[in-house]
Write a sequence for this structure.
């Protein structure tokens, strides 16, 4: 009979209460963490299969609430093969859960994507777990649309929003909108009542307008500093509001392109890792070679609209974001981990089961080597990626 429990032995284990050296992480037959101990003996009497992971770091898996695609695959296609491909590509780079993220497009195309992403959530994918949907647009401000489609921007409408939620089988966990547009505050209230996290993004809101939206329940900002009204000493805008309002959790694309390294440090120093939510904003061509890809071009990993007018997503991975953040801020790994695990889990509404190495939660974890390269990725206790080794 196969062992009911698997125990990973010998790694440095990163838990919310500290690093457990030479740790033992016990995973049960349901893919849940059963126990984490150091020198102490395990408390179970059942048969245990031991896995030696000495010399590695065992950390909680990354949760990315803002992914459009990667490795040639697109979330907006809605096709299962694309969503599965996204899940496998990002699992190889440390992501164990993600929200497939839509873009501003014709309403029928958004509905098609929502319906099919919801089906993939129910069916499951083979890499990182698809835990829901991030609806980015179409309720945004034209002035801050960035690479989003100008012609498909819409004003929020309560009945339309309810229809989108139903089409998505209530799998929408996060919505990006511009709270200052007509109907924006009503949309914030409606979504918050339904338990959906609302984020200000692609928005030209003033500081006071952001404060009003926060009073309605808005608690998140989308790719902070990008696609928003900037900080000015006479008008703090959305960028300033994100820095100053403790209610707001701020997304961050930590590639050194979207946000200067010094400003990355400013954000972490000001907000603290418990209010920064690291994302990739990865698009279809992330992971591919430089070149032209439809409406965008990628050079040295930087992705722009072909006319050069705007950045158009990123080629970032979560593991690279972590390495960048360590370098930009000088913070140690353990201080930055919440921004990639517990914070996105909280904002996506899955903190009860994901985001930290705690008994009873899903066994979503990574094995990293000392260079912070991904050796293996586990989702609900199952290996979904393992690095190839020579010989």
């Amino acid at each position: 009979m196969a062992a009911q429990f698997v125990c990973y032995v010998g790694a440095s284990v990163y838990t919310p209460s500290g690093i457990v050296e030479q740790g033992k992480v016990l995973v049960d037959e349901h893919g849940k963490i059963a126990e984490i101990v150091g020198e102490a003996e395990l408390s179970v009497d059942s048969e245990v299969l031991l896995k030696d992971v000495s010399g590695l770091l065992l950390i909680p898996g990354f949760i990315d609430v803002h992914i459009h695609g990667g490795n040639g695959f697109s979330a907006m296609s809605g096709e299962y093969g694309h969503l599965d491909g996204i899940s496998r590509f990002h699992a190889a780079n440390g992501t164990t859960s993600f929200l497939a993220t839509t873009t501003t497009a014709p309403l029928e195309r958004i509905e098609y994507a929502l319906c099919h992403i919801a089906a993939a959530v129910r069916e499951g994918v083979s890499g990182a777990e698809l835990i829901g949907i991030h609806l980015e647009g179409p309720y945004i401000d034209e002035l801050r649309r960035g690479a989003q489609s100008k012609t498909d921007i819409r004003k929020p409408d309560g009945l339309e929003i309810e229809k989108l939620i139903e089409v998505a089988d209530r799998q929408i966990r996060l919505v990006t909108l511009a709270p200052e547009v007509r109907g924006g505050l009503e949309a914030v209230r409606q979504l918050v009542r339904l338990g959906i996290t609302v984020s200000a993004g692609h928005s030209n809101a003033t500081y006071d307008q952001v404060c009003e939206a926060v009073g309605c329940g808005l608690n998140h900002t989308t790719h902070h500093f990008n696609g928003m009204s900037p900080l000015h000493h006479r008008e703090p805008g959305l960028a300033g509001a994100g820095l100053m309002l403790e209610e707001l959790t701020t997304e961050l694309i930590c590639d050194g392109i979207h946000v200067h390294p010094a400003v990355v440090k400013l954000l972490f120093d000001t907000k603290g890792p418990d209010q920064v939510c690291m994302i990739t904003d990865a698009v279809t061509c992330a992971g591919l070679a430089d070149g032209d890809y439809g409406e965008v071009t990628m050079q040295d990993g930087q992705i722009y609209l072909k006319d050069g007018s705007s950045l158009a997503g990123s080629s970032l991975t979560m593991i690279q974001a972590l390495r960048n953040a360590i370098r930009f801020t000088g913070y140690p790994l353990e201080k930055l981990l919440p921004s990639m695990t517990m914070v996105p889990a909280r904002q996506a509404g899955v903190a009860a089961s994901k985001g930290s190495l705690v008994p009873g939660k899903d066994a979503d974890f990574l094995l990293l080597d000392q260079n912070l390269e991904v050796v293996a990725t586990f989702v609900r206790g199952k290996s979904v990626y393992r690095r190839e080794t020579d010989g």
In short: The radius of gyration is 21 Å. The domain at 61-347 is CATH 3.20.20.140 (TIM Barrel).
